[in-house]
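Minutes, project check-in
Item: structure for the 209-residue chain
Input as provided by the requester:
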Amino acid sequence: MKLSVDNATGQVRLTLPPRAPVGEALRWAEGQHDWIARALARRTAPVPFEPGAAILYLGEEVGLGWDSGFPRTPLLDDGQLIAGGPREGYERRVERWLRRQALAVMSAETAEYAARADVTVTRVAVGDPKGRWGSCAASGVIRYSWRLILAPPEVRRATVAHEVAHRVHMNHSAAFHAVVRELYGREPSRERAWLRANAMRLHSFGRAS
């Protein structure tokens, strides 16, 4: 059983494994008042993709700028991500750029780790799931949250190693974690802790205020 809080709405979500008794789960959730209160208190304000905002990119703070004389495609220059074209649609252009960067970078890193593990990955895709940073299907398709491109590179790479390791073991056994350590080069506990601590912040970017 798992409790999570949607940073944008404050909605508390209870996730159950298959065939779990609902009554028992609800009683357990009702006893988590303190955790829920702390999670709600940690909610971060939304940061829309608008000129003047500051976001994370590769773990570093980047300012968003707009200049109608610049090309429509955003350009990263000296700590600023600047996009031109009309003001209308600016937010969509910034998010599309971030998604393209995420797909390109994590496709390359997935191929790198897959070659090390001697496994095949049929396709890499990015989306915006709220409850997970990556998933690996039995078909060989790996999906990532595009928001990983906002995180420090080592955090993103640890997540990629985790998903590629599922092409060896489709579980979270000791053998699976040994593959993760072998691919990544060490135990990624610091990276997992960073994601847990910064999950709500990463999900705040691009949200309407």
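Outcome recorded: The chain has a mean pLDDT of 94.
No further action items on this chain.
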